[in-house]
Amino acid sequence: MPHTEPSPPVTGRPSDREEREEREKWAGAVARLTAPGAPFAVVRGERGTPEYADGPRTLREFVETTWAYGDAVFLVDGERRWSYGEFFAAASALAVRLTERYGLRPGDRAVVGTRSLPEWQIAFWGAQLAGIVAVPLDGREDGDALGAVLDDCAPGVLLVDGEWLERAGEWAARRDGVRVVLFREGRAEGRLPGGAAVERYADFPAPDPWAAPPAVEPRPEDDSVILYGGGARGAVTTHLAQAGAALDARYRTAAAALARGAVPGLGPVPETPVAFPFSHPVALAAVYGAMAAGGSVVAAEAKGGGGVPYELEPTPVTEFRVTGPSGEPVPDRGPGRLWVRGQSAPRGHWRDPEATAEAFDGGWFRTGDLAVRHGGGVTVVGRAGAGGVNA
Q1: With the C-alpha atoms ordered 155, 161, 164, 165, is the resulting torsion angle positive or negative?
Q2: In the predicted model, what is the mean pLDDT of the chain?
Q3: What is the pLDDT of residues 11-64, one digit of tens each?
Q4: Chain-centre distance of CA 68, in angstroms?
Q5: SS3 (DSSP) at 359
Q6: How far is CA 48 from the centre of its chain?
Q7: Sheet holding 296-299, edge to edge
């Protein structure tokens, strides 16, 4: 089992007795949820790291269950509401188009480059339903930096809005076979430089609410998402890792309910405002949590993906440590390099075995983030260097 426990939510400045009581409640909730046979029981996986014993093993398995929420609201965009049924039909139709019309196959890459719009979720989950590796980009990359990222992941399709088309259009026009789907035009022209056509999502046939996604079955060990944290070096996570992140969200909700004396799953469905760009890991986790409960996602005033401090919470299958440059421990509140181990950790760097070997130490993955520890929690405060995920 992991050597760290999730910390209870901190509200105000409790006394020592109150804080101790809260920690005891939280520890009791953790024990009830993670014991053998419990909903979030933990086992050791093939790599020797903790994994959930039950639950979905791929993101496709996870998202397929949301179809049952039907008319419940999933995405909120101003006055526009997307139900789970509408969303799943749209994502399934896009997945079919990616495989049957564009000829993409499991393992190919799809860049998801839009603002935090409902279409972002359709693009991301359409890729997952097709077994295609999603590459979410947050808009910090531009010019040569964006070209380097695109060269590295070599996508077969760009799923973009008008702002992204302006950034990535010239790159796509210079490469045969790269398809472009334009979700919202903005100021972008209808054609790429050099005459390569752009297909507008608005021109696609209306999704059939009863049509199934492609008949592909990703394996837990297959790649699911590539995240670029700065520079042209991507961290790759598998379907098993992303499914673990989705279960983490369920676990935190259940543990919080038990700790306050409530029954998990019996409260009102959540409405989740997401202030980070959808491409950010914190936003992905928030969306997973909403989807697990049949709640709705509202894109708030999105913050930039880089340079914004954010909290990380240990879970039954995730461990963190913060060290100095040579691996030495650092005191609480002291900045250091963040390492992660567990089901949700990356499997390595995209097509870079040497960098992958350098990034792992006894099952621990060096994220390249700069973080501080405080009690049982971790706050990411920036990047450890300018050279990318493994800086």
Answers
A1: positive
A2: 86
A3: 455 567 877 777 787 788 888 889 899 999 999 887 778 899 999 999 999 999
A4: 22
A5: helix
A6: 23
A7: 80-83, 73-77, 296-299, 271-274
DSSP string, 56-93: -SSHHHHHHGGGGGTTSEEEEETTEEEEHHHHHHHHHH
Tell me the residue type at 49.
Answer: T
17: part of which helix (H) or strand (E)? helix 16-34
Q: What would the pLDDT profile of 157-216 be if each residue is shown by its tens digit? A: 999 998 888 788 888 888 888 999 999 876 545 555 555 568 999 999 999 999 999 999
- The Cα 151–Cα 159 span in angstroms is 16
pTM comes to 0.89
User: Is 111 in contact with 156 (CB distance < 8 Å)?
Assistant: no
Six-digit token pair at 341? Answer: 């181990």
| pLDDT band, very low/low/confident/very high, at 3 (cuts 50, 70, 90) | very low
Q: Which residue has the tokens 């499914």?
A: 243
Q: In whole angstroms, what is the distance from residue 66 CA to residue 73 CA?
A: 11
**DSSP SS3 for 205:** coil
For residue 228, which phi and psi values (nearest 5 degrees)?
-105, 115
Q: Are strands 50-52 and 109-113 parallel, antiparallel or unpaired?
A: unpaired
What is the rounded distance in angstroms from the CA atom of residue 325 to the CA atom of residue 29?
36
Q: Of 252, 237, 239, which Cα lies nearest the Cα of 293?
A: 252
Q: Is 382 left (phi over 0), alpha (psi -120 to 50) or beta?
A: left
Contact by Cβ (8 Å): 265, 294: no
pLDDT of the residue at 306? 52
pLDDT digits (tens, 9 = 90+) for 349-391: 999 999 999 999 888 999 888 999 886 688 998 887 643 333 3
CA distances from 116 to 225, 226, 273, 299 (A): 17, 18, 11, 6
Angle formed by the axes of helices 118-129 and 84-96, to 10°? 50
Sorting pLDDT into bands at 50, 70 and 90, what band is 236? very high
Both tokens of 336, joined, read 């250091």
C-alpha angle with apex 120: 116 to 122, nearest 5 degrees?
145
Query: Which tokens in the block code for residue 331?
Result: 């005191």
